[in-house]
Amino acid sequence: IIGGGPSIETVDLQRLRGKDTIAVNKSAFYVPNPTHFITMDYTVLRKVGVPRLRNLQSAKHFVVNMSISYIQSRNGCPTDIRNGAAYSQLFDIFNTIHVCQREDGLGTGFQDFRCGNNSGYCALQLAFILGYKNIYLLGFDMTIQGNKTHFHAGYNEPTNVFNKRVVNYTNVFAVGLAEAKQKFPEVNLVSCSSISSLNKIIPYKAFIGVS
Question: Please, which contacts does 32-35 make with residues 24 or more away whose CB atoms are closer than 8 Å?
Answer without folding.
Answer: 33/57, 33/58, 34/2, 34/58, 35/59
